[in-house]
Amino acid sequence: MLVLALKCVTPQQLGLNITGKALLTGALLGILPIISVPLLDGLLVKAGWAQSELFSGANLRVPEEMGFNKSLPGLFFTTLLIPFLDQVFVVGLVINNLLKKQNTGQVILGGGLLFSLIHFELSMGNLLLGMVSAGLLRATGSIIAPVLVHACFSIAEVLIVFHYPRLISVLVFLV
């Protein structure tokens, strides 16, 4: 935001172009993780796996001890503000410039690696989110789609932590 305030770059250079294609693509791809959370939990229950030893004690997890805040400002910050700032910095500033100079495939893979490294968290989830964000920027020409997808992944994470804690045991490799 400081870069924008100092007018070092324009919103268009960051990819802040609001287009119908970017909004539709981001919304459609973003809704998938939100929908998949209750579906995956329902699958575990239906298959009878929800009662297995792997998931015993899942309801005893305390979100606050995992670094989650139940307050409305905390949830707003986690699900909307952080994804926006994250995407503006990583995708808008760094990856957007790399796409102009490098091979698209290299930038998409590099975007995933960069996303993981910047967060100091080498996980499959960060790698995938970085690659999807770089690919969406390339496909739509806007960071609006990656912002929406990132926000929806954050909403899915909050749903898992607060409402479907047994999924943490299944999805632990993504976090």
Task: Please outline the helices and strands.
Blueprint: H1 2-5, H2 11-14, H3 20-47, H4 72-101, H5 104-118, H6 124-140, H7 144-163, H8 167-171
Number of domains: 1
What's the number of extended β-strand segments?
0
The major pleated sheet works out as: none
Radius of gyration: 18 Å
Indicate the proportion of strand residues.
under 5%
Helix content: over 70%
Class based on secondary structure composition and strand pairing:
mainly alpha
The parts where pLDDT drops under 50 for at least 5 residues are none
Principal-axes geometry comes out as elongated
Number of helices: 8
Mean pLDDT: 79
- Separation of the first and last Cα atoms: 27 Å
The H/E string reads HHHHHHHH
Provide structural commentary.
The structure is a single chain. The longest helix has 30 residues. With 175 residues, the protein is an all-alpha fold. Helix 4 packs antiparallel against helix 5, helix 4 packs across helix 6 and helix 6 runs antiparallel to helix 7. It has 8 helices and no strands. The protein is elongated. The chain has one domain. The mean pLDDT is 79.
